[in-house]
Design brief:
The protein has 518 residues and is α/β, with parallel strands linked by helices. It has five domains: 12-103, no CATH class; 108-146; 157-232 and 483-516, Nucleotidyltransferase, domain 5, CATH 3.30.420.10; 238-261 and 390-473, no CATH class; 264-388, no CATH class. 48% of the residues lie in helices and 16% in strands. The strands form three sheets. Strands 1, 2, 5, 6 and 7 form a five-stranded mixed β-sheet that branches. Strand 5 and strand 6 form a beta hairpin. Helix 16 runs antiparallel to helix 17 (448-455). The two termini are 42 Å apart.
């Protein structure tokens, strides 16, 4: 059966189209309310007595690439209630159709709101203009702020973490409902008092997932002493890997003795390496001064005042984390070294020619890498040395020690075998870290106490002491299905929204876009 499309369908429900006028880029619709009576907004009395009429305009959804303007005839009614303070009132159309004093219909307001949530101010304004729904960027942001709603669901399991308004200077706090997988609120800072006050207003919370920072843990303990705290598993795994890297950094002096590179001949160094070596000597002077003060029993705070160095640098020195001599990186020549050695023995000494041959064979590096290698070979030959003994950085050694032996090259395998045979404490530290990470993966919480006893006396003792201080949250992290991964994902989304607005969004707008869009 054929159905005809009437002009009444062009207007929102509750409005009747009386006349339509189509211009080049705009459609004007003269409309009025279909209801014959209206309800007084003060007393609720229904009235049919018309006092007067007036015209108002409102924008509606576009039609066929043209803007739509509704010219609405509004009737004023007499209120017949004796005790009502209003004698005359205008007929209402409903918020979903056309709100009081609104310049847009309800359905267009909804589109504007979602554009603001998705794109922000200026990008949404440019996109709306292309959709023939012109609206300013300020209006878009006002609509987003006005229509934001706070979640009212009862919270039981939440995640809490900090985020940066400006890294290193100003931070805020995000709270997420882990059961419903949505953000709940943003707090203006990450101070313990602010988090504690918010948590105290939600006594229904029974589980809180957080990172290993102390501030949130203390706030939760004071505001919700009955709630279970769950440490973030990803941070536990990352902290464990960092602890092994620190253990390798503390052992670099022994590793250099093992490798045989404690004495450096400056004649064998290239210009870039010589600059690094000179910087290393300067760092050594600083390190020795700090270590000497520490041996005398001077506290860290006094060392900072006497030397003028930062607290972070002093702590790194005392922990043995500033002992790398060179910034060693994985070279793009690693897999080409056997071929280069062979060509060099055959008499090919021109670095540019060698580089061109390598390019034909698939080498993607630059000519400077090959020139640096050739310069080193010439220096070594002049001093009757076949190679320059170099110790990899602590990060490289930590990576090589945690790889499977089958994944190592022959030279790397020999190096790691020498380190393991001469620095057995690193083997113990690596085994302890592997056991801890495997404990988290297999949820074997029963092994935690025995692991702590073994780890306290090893090179990862500092990490073990930190785990012991937060033992309840770590136990829950091993056995609980909840973690702070969702919260980290919401922080990533928050960063995207903040960068869309060039990092200048205030907390109320960030909250409106983050919470309102979920």
């Amino acid at each position: 059966m054929e159905q005809r499309f009437g002009s009444t369908r062009l207007a929102p429900a509750g409005l009747l189209v009386e006349h339509a006028e189509i211009n080049t880029d705009c459609v004007f619709l003269d409309v009025r309310a279909t209801a014959l009576s209206a309800t007084c907004p003060c007393c609720g009395t229904s009235s049919r007595r018309t006092q007067s009429r007036y015209m108002r305009q409102a924008a509606d959804l576009p039609i066929a690439g043209r803007r739509v303007v509704l010219r609405v005839t509004v009737r004023r009614f007499w209120c017949d209630a004796v005790l009502c303070r209003r004698r005359i009132f205008a007929g209402r159309f409903g918020v979903g159709v056309l709100g009081p004093l609104s310049r847009r219909t309800g359905r267009l307001e909804t589109i504007v709101h979602h554009l603001g949530l998705a794109l922000g101010g200026r990008p949404a304004a440019a996109f709306a203009d292309r959709l023939m729904m012109p609206v300013s960027n300020d209006t878009l942001l006002r609509v987003v702020r006005r229509r934001t709603e706070q979640p009212r669901d009862k919270l039981a399991i939440i995640g809490i973490d900090d985020f940066a308004f400006r890294r290193g200077q100003r931070y805020g706090t995000i709270v997420c409902d882990l059961e419903r997988r949505r953000p709940v609120t943003l707090l203006p800072d990450r101070e313990q008092a602010t988090s504690q006050a918010w948590l105290a207003n939600h006594p229904s919370i029974v589980t809180v997932a957080r990172d290993r920072g102390g501030g949130y843990g203390e706030a939760i303990a004071r505001a919700l002493p009955h709630a279970d705290q769950v440490a973030d598993r990803w941070h536990l795994m990352e902290n464990a890997s960092r602890a092994f890297l620190d253990a390798v950094s503390k052992s670099m002096r022994h590793i250099r003795k093992t490798v045989g590179s404690t004495i450096i001949d400056p004649k064998l160094l290239t210009y870039a390496e010589r600059l690094q070596y000179e910087g290393y000597l300067r760092r050594q002077e600083t390190n020795e001064a700090i270590l000497e003060l520490s041996k005398q029993g001077v506290p860290i705070k006094q060392i900072v005042k006497r030397t003028g160095h930062s607290r972070k640098l002093v702590r790194c020195v005392l922990r043995g984390q500033r002992s790398d001599m060179f910034r060693v990186r994985q070279s793009s020549l690693e897999e080409w070294l056997p071929w280069l050695d062979g060509r060099w023995d055959q008499g090919a000494r021109n670095a540019s020619a060698l580089w061109r041959e390598m390019r034909k064979k698939g080498f993607r590096g630059q000519i400077g890498v090959v020139s640096e290698w050739a310069r080193r070979r010439r220096l070594a030959e002049r001093t009757d040395q076949s190679a320059l003994a170099r110790t990899p950085s602590a990060r490289s050694i930590a990576r090589l020690m945690t790889l499977a032996r089958d994944d190592l090259s022959k030279s790397d395998a020999v190096l790691i075998a020498a380190i393991e045979s001469n620095v057995p404490d690193l083997i113990t530290a690596r085994t302890l870290i592997d056991d801890f990470q495997q404990m988290i993966r297999s949820k074997a919480v029963a092994k935690l106490d025995a692991w702590l006893d073994d780890a306290k006396a090893s090179l990862v003792g500092s990490f073990a002491n930190g785990v012991e201080k937060d033992i309840a949250a770590v136990r829950n992290a091993i056995i609980s299905p909840w973690s702070n991964g969702q919260t980290e994902g919401q922080i990533t989304k928050l960063k995207l929204i903040k960068r869309q607005m060039y990092g200048r969004a205030k907390i109320d707008l960030l909250q409106a876009r983050l919470v309102g869009a979920t």
